[in-house]
From TrEMBL, chains A, B:
Pathway linked to the protein: Amino-acid biosynthesis; L-tyrosine biosynthesis; (4-hydroxyphenyl)pyruvate from prephenate (NAD(+) route): step 1/1
Ranges for domain Prephenate/arogenate dehydrogenase: 5-286
InterPro entries for the chain: 6-PGluconate_DH-like_C_sf, NAD(P)-bd_dom_sf, PDH_C, PDH_N, Preph/Arog_dehydrog, Prephen_DH
Assigned protein family: Belongs to the prephenate/arogenate dehydrogenase family.
Organism: Citrifermentans bremense
Enzyme Commission (EC) number: 1.3.1.12
This protein's name: prephenate dehydrogenase
A GO MF label: prephenate dehydrogenase (NADP+) activity
């Protein structure tokens, strides 16, 4: 099996912490160094057995690492890579877990010194919780991690990053960064935009005074779970995948407008078939 | 405790079956008669111990009943009540579980013969499954059932209907039918319209060919669970609560439009605070 001597994780949260946990468990890394901005979260990472040691100095942290996993919010990923690039050991592979890929991959590829390699990745797995405390080793089990090579990607580095995610339990489709960003805009970013808007709308509706949300049943709670996701993570996603998100929001609004028309017209058969198509498609992914 | 001699359930599905189960379990009904259009579902109701006996003849089914629970899709409720009204025993209480109340209560109150009573109700509880097979006795446990009296409602009948839902384990807020319809438009009908539209949109997006939905992770599946709900039930809700649903869809679209603006402008602070408000409100109802 693929074994790394030293893995550095920058941004030891849900995504970074969970990958460190599983690679340690599987013996795929000999040592894990955590890198972050504050000590508290990192200390907790050592206590929880996610990290062997930590530092707030990224330069020191990446020294001698043959694998660096960057799992900060998306906007910070290129900044972090720019900061560490001059200090990477020859042959080091840098990969990330950011939810947007064109923005990240385009910027980071250019930052890599000769003989070091960047490969973009995005695990389609997560919860609405954050921080190392929320991490767990089975997060990636049975999930997909999309890896996004480009024409510039080193073939061997790509192979190793794919292998990492397989060790973590995921299947690993390869996808162009631009295509990736459209796919996740549809299945993840759009639903989040919709859920955030829905909770704000219900919260903002005060025609009857009273606390509408207190009447919400299980359906509403499940439906809006993703509206509890981290605001900074989602700010960064919205900032960096703007065009795809706008395209999907407009595409969705068209469907909502169609449904609005059916409701306004009282079109019984149109309503039933709109709902039925959705039910059939949804049941197929149960 | 309140005890009914004979309860007739018309529409022995998730909602009707679950109320029959719990009232039997608690000894609050001596006999339960199931009434439906086809024998198959009703036979299953007897096999599952939900019903003592059944009939497809509503007139016969309600004979001698002191409680009738109508739990068909909303549009059928006034039709069913019109059909049984002439055959109700004196003192009989008819109540329903329909998700829309103004349409149902206005129609049914007028149909009741002297000395029989209609009281509208709506349990805020459910799953996306239907039929008697999906029913279970704890469905209403810890939930709310909104009961919707009007100026015409008999005080004693109201008291008994409230008591029924308390026996089923629910708290029982009273609400004007019109207000009820706005509240559920916001917390239930709007989310369903949004979820149905979202699944149809993602299903309809074919820019990259391929099956987008196959990439969906847990977040998407939870988010869209309610889009698996019964198309006929939701057709009827959309037909009978039209104005409130349109109002809420438009109100929601305003928020979506605001968010679209923040995304288009790349307004980092605006995005973060939009997401944060939603997260805080959502976390409060966890
Ligand atoms: N959550 C999900 O569902 C999910 C799924 C797939 C991909 N992702 C992606 O994975 C990445 C991490 O998400 P997560 O859920 O793991 O978030 P998280 O639990 O909040 O962890 C992110 C970590 O990054 C560090 N960080 C935050 N802001 C930073 C900044 N400006 N500069 C440098 N470091 C910073 C923080 O550690 P310190 O405070 O110690 O610096 C934090 O622990 C994001 O790019 C996200 O888009 C998330
Ligand atoms: N599901 C929820 O989450 C939920 C929550 C709260 C309230 N409600 C309301 O409760 C009511 C029943 O919903 P449910 O989820 O229990 O549905 P369900 O499981 O499909 O049961 C409805 C039953 O009504 C009968 N029925 C269907 N169409 C009919 C028609 N046109 N005329 C007469 N009977 C008909 C069917 O029995 P036969 O085939 O044997 O006639 C069926 O078993 C609806 O008004 C709904 O709005 C549902």
């Amino acid at each position: 099996m693929l074994v790394f001597n030293r893995m550095a994780v920058i941004g030891v949260g849900l995504i970074g912490g969970s990958l460190a946990r599983i690679l340690r468990e599987k013996g795929a890394v000999k040592e894990v160094v955590g890198i972050g901005r504050g000590e508290e979260n990192l200390k907790r990472g050592v206590e929880l057995g996610v990290l062997d040691r930590y530092t707030t100095n990224a330069k020191e942290g990446v020294a001698g690492a043959d694998l660096v996993f960057v799992a900060t919010p998306v906007c910070a990923i290129p900044k972090v890579v720019a900061e560490i690039a001059p200090f990477l050991a020859p042959g080091c592979i840098v990969t990330d877990g950011g939810s947007v890929k064109e923005f990240v991959v385009e910027a980071c590829e250019q930052l890599m010194p000769e003989g070091t390699f960047f490969v973009g990745g995005h695990p389609i797995a997560g919860t609405e919780h954050s921080g190392v405390e929320a991490s767990f080793s089975t997060l990636y089990q049975g999930k997909r991690c999309i890896v996004t090579p480009t024409a510039n990607t080193d073939a061997l580095a790509l192979e190793k990053v794919v292998e990492i995610w397989k060790i973590a339990g995921s299947t690993v489709p390869l996808m162009d960064p631009v295509q990736h960003d459209r796919v996740v805009a549809a299945i993840s970013h759009l639903p989040h935009m919709v859920a955030y808007s829905l909770v704000n709308a219900v919260d903002g509706y005060d025609r009857f005074g009273g606390d509408l949300l207190s009447f919400s049943a299980g359906g509403f709670r499940d439906f809006t779970r993703i509206a509890s996701s981290d605001p900074v993570m989602w700010r960064d996603i919205a900032l960096t995948n703007r065009d795809a998100i706008l395209e999907m929001m407009d595409f969705f609004s068209g469907y909502l407008e169609t449904l609005r028309g059916l409701v306004a017209e009282g079109d019984a058969e149109g309503l039933r078939s709109f709902f039925l198509n959705s039910k059939e498609k949804r049941d197929a992914i149960l």
